[in-house]
Amino acid sequence: MPTTNGPSQHGRVARLRRWPVVLAWTLVAVELLLVASPPWFDLLNRRAGRPDLAVLAPFAIPPTVAALTAGVVGAVLASRRPRHPVGWLLLAMGVTMSVSGAAVGYIPYGLVVRPGALPAANLVARLYPVTIAVVLAAVGFILLLTPTGSPPSLRWRWWARGLAVAVAVALVAATIAPGSLDPLAQFVSGPMDPQVYGGALRVANQLALLVGLLTILAGAASLVVRYRSARGVERQQLQWVALAAALTGLSMLVAAILIAVGEVNLAAWASVVGVLFLPLATGAAILRYRLYDLDRIISRTLAYGLLTVLLGLGYAAVVLGLGRLLPEGSSLAVAGATLAVAALFQPLRRRLQAAVDRRFNRRRHDAARVIEEFGARLRDQVDMDTLTGELLAVTTQTMQPTRASLWLRPPTGPGVR
Asked: Buried (b) or exposed (e) across 288-320, using 16+ Cβ within 10 A?
């Protein structure tokens, strides 16, 4: 009669649970190795007398930060929720972006600085634009599958399958299509410039990028459809993603303005802030980490943002006003402005927070008002039955539980029977 080996079976189950964790963090380690390659290629280009082909620049920071953030968040998700596809998609996105960053140094050194010194440099040059399309497609599928891990409905599943087939066909075509390629122009102009390619290769690369962009649009549309029908926890999860998308768009707008005025380095750091939001918000939404803190975060962000602007304007006004009245070079203007800002900080913060809560965080404002009114009535109330009823009413109104009851421990002591 066959018997099951309990410890052996338990060991197999433990190994099966361990392999997603090992695989996820191995991919993060590979990503770190790829991220370390651009400085090495930069050093090789400079030693070869081609500092013009150096790959380290301010705008190399945002994609590097985005790749590492997506990889780490994806590894955490894949480790804790290995059956959820978004964690693996984030990992794929981070690794692909790291491969793209390594290719930026690999291509010019292997095809321009030292032709033939690196193996398969031509193939890497062909794959470079494909990595951009892969990242775009990954973002689209992350949006399509967040937060549940599946499309919003059966109809959207057909869209997802069609997009997956289109992405695969476009990527294969962009890799094997015949045509010419200028590696130096690819390094200078970037992989999205169609003038870099010739023949069918140009058409295939443009189609791959177009399919990637269409995937993002489909994913964004699915989020809107999902949000309209979502309730409870899922709606709160989608609010996190929507907030991240809005902040990402705002940071990119700030970066574009900074580029227009010539502040390229500041634009790069503004882009860094932007690329952090979506992976972090996606991970928090799926893991449901501090899910219901969103209203508080929004109200605090608005309050402190307005407070910073108002105090900055007040500081500048005081410095300019006192600067005209006091002798030139006097430090009294700065000291006076600092004292004025310090005196106004707390009163202004309280007023702004209350105004923001009334407008954007109504539930918290109403709850605080109800509790304050209950505290005022509590001082004058002595009837226990009335207090019990009011306490239950306040709890129901502010916390909105499904059920509420109050248990009072009977008094104990030597004089109580």
From this structure: eeeeeebbeeebeebbeebbeeebeeebeebee
